[in-house]
Amino acid sequence: MPTVLITGANRGIGLELSRQYAASGWEVIACCRKPKEATQLAKLKVEIRPLDVAKPASIAKLATALKGRGIDVLLNNAGFLGRRSGFGK
């Protein structure tokens, strides 16, 4: 079974990607900052992992937890805007 890792999986595009891949028979590793608050994601048959892409320690912790596991597709959907001065400025 192929495996996909999706960041920012708790809502919007990431949640829908998680839903679609799980429905297609993929093993889904769904990552989000606050897994306990990801109620819609918890309803899916996916593996939920904590990840904050803005924190190197969080990335390292996930890498350690998944060491040795094959990942066929990475969908890096998460991101952050930084200072809130307006997108594109």
SSE diagram, text form:
Layout: E1 3-7, H1 12-23, E2 27-32, H2 39-42, E3 47-50, H3 56-65, E4 73-76
Parallel strand pairs: 1-2, 1-4, 2-3
Question: Care to give the gist of this entry?
Answer:
By secondary structure, this protein is an alpha/beta fold. The chain has helices at 12-23, 39-42, 56-65, and strands at 3-7, 27-32, 47-50, 73-76.
Structure description:
This protein has a 4-stranded parallel β-sheet, with helices on one face. It is of the alpha/beta class and 89 residues long. It is globular. The longest helix has 12 residues, at 12-23. 22% of the residues are buried. The protein has 3 helices and 4 strands. The mean pLDDT is 92.
Main sheet characteristics: 4 strands, parallel
- Report the C-alpha radius of gyration, rounded: 13 Å
Structural class: alpha/beta
Portion in beta strands: 15-25%
What oligomeric arrangement do these chains adopt? Answer: single chain
The strand order across the widest sheet is 3-2-1-4
Q: N- to C-terminal separation?
A: 43 Å
| Uncertain ranges | none
Number of helices: 3
Helix content: 25-40%
Counting DSSP E segments of at least 2 residues, the number of strands comes to 4
Shape: globular
Please provide the ordered H/E string of secondary-structure elements: EHEHEHE
Rounded mean pLDDT score: 92
